[in-house]
Amino acid sequence: MNMSEPIPTLGQKVTKLIAESPFKNPLNFHKEIKRICDEDAISISHLYNVVNDKKRVKDTILFQIATALGVGLFELRKGTTSEPPAEGPSQGVFHYNKSAILYKLYNGLPFNPQMIKIKGRGKTIEEREEITGFQCFIFVMVIRGEVNLVLKHKDGNTESKKLKLDDRHCFNSGDFYYFENKSKQFSKVLLIKFTKPI
């Protein structure tokens, strides 16, 4: 950046990034946020508050914007008047948000978080995952409704576990598995894949 150029505000940087993105304008960009974050998505007025520098913005709001832009939260602030100082107390607290935590929170770590939404009376496809030289595990936590986790072990046995809201379970991802929702309402499962060398 040319030292004679004024430092842009956070809103100016976000506006520029949106204009350079496939979404082109805040209205289309907000549709992408809603697609990613579902019912946890920020409102369009929150987005306009950011691009217009109307008020101090919470990290939880910026996190969704950064995610939809495909950048990290601190990268979004970098080079703006909102960039945290290099020295001093740490800044930025991520409050729990059902959707936002899934995106880039574990960037660079051996974790792969996903949010799975299962329609009422529906089920996911059967899958498994193995990586040569690694043990692969999956941690699941039900954050809406209830599901049945069906595991098909390598020894031929099938195991079904009923998981209710806030229930957690960890299993070897080398086994075939799928989720089934027998209720009429949709369910949501937080799924985190992680590995460790053998």
Q: Can you put this structure into words, describing what you see?
A:
This protein has 198 residues and is an alpha+beta fold. The protein folds into 2 domains: 1-105, Orthogonal Bundle (434 Repressor (Amino-terminal Domain)); 106-197, Jelly Rolls (Sandwich). It is built from 5 helices and 7 strands, in the order αααααβββββββ. The chain has a 4-stranded antiparallel β-sheet, with no helix packed on it. The longest helix has 12 residues, at 26-37. Mean pLDDT is 82; it is low at 87-108.
Q: Which terms summarize this structure?
A:
single chain; 198 residues; alpha+beta; 434 Repressor (Amino-terminal Domain); Jelly Rolls; 2 domains; 4-stranded antiparallel beta sheet; 3-stranded antiparallel beta sheet; elongated
Second rung of CATH, namely the architecture of the largest domain: Orthogonal Bundle
Strand content: 25-35%
Q: By CATH's scheme, which homologous superfamily of the largest domain applies?
A: lambda repressor-like DNA-binding domains
Low-confidence stretches: 87-108
Assembly type of the chains comes to single chain
Q: Pairing-aware structural class of the strands and helices? A: alpha+beta
Most strands sheet = 4 strands, antiparallel
Distance between the termini: 46 Å
In total, how many domains does the architecture comprise?
Answer: 2
Strand order of the largest sheet: 1-7-2-5
- CATH class term of the largest domain: Mainly Alpha
* Share of helical residues: 10-25%
- What's the gyration radius in Å? 20 Å
- What shape does the CA trace take? elongated
- What is the N-to-C order of secondary-structure elements (H for helix, E for strand)? HHHHHEEEEEEE
Please report the total strand number as a whole number. 7
